[in-house]
Amino acid sequence: MDGRERDRDGAGRARSARPRDGLGRPLPYGADGVARQPEGVVRSPGETVAEAQRLLDAGMPFHAHEVFEDAWKSGPEADAGLWRGLAQLAVGLTHAARGNSVGGARLLRRGAGALAGHGNAYGIEVAGLVGWARELAGRVEAGERIDAAAEAPRLAGPV
Fold first, then answer.
1. Cys-Cys link to 86, which of 16, 68, 97, 107 (CB 3.0-4.6 A)?
2. pTM metric for this prediction
């Protein structure tokens, strides 16, 4: 690809084949990157939580966000708000770890707000995650540098 062409899938939709780092930032073509999450994977709620937790623990919240996105797009409509809120938390952590304090804090709070109306589901301790996100958002706004792996929340059980 010479920079003038757009990478497109079989249906003609634009996509990016550029390699990415662990926080989802694009790297130059030809660089070694982190394998991307396959799109459109249908998982059970338990598999979604386990895979997202594995990625969060590895310091890859951008990739965890993609797992949550698959869940909200493929699962029952009744669960879409839960998965979307979790995706927003993962993206907020991603931005915070990239040094984007404004975007990180905003998305952490947006995700916390989206989750606040949900009860615990699939072993996910929603109230604990809401508290974690709000506390982290305050630290991010105060200028604290964030390490994604060190700040990874526990999705199930105490946060």
1. 68
2. 0.85
Tokens 């993609």, located at residue: 66
Note every long-range contact of 132-137, with CB atoms under 8 Å and residues 24 or more positions apart, other chains counting.
132/159, 133/89, 133/92, 133/108, 133/109, 134/108, 134/109, 136/92, 136/93, 136/96, 136/108, 137/92, 137/104, 137/105, 137/108, 137/109, 137/112
Q: How far apart are CA 72 and CA 82, in angstroms?
A: 8
d(C-alpha 127, C-alpha 136), whole Å: 14
User: Do residues 59 and 101 touch, judged by C-beta distance below 8 A?
Assistant: no
What's the pLDDT tens digit per position in 98-123? 999 999 999 999 999 999 989 999 99
The answer to whether 82 touches 118, Cβ cutoff 8 Å, is yes
| Coil, helix or strand at residue 156 | strand
Q: For residue range 4-15, what is the model confidence (pLDDT) as tens digits?
A: 455 665 666 556
* Cα distance between residue 114 and residue 1, in whole Å: 40
Residue 115 neighbours by CB distance under 10 Å: 22
Q: Which residues pair with 34 in a beta bridge?
A: 20
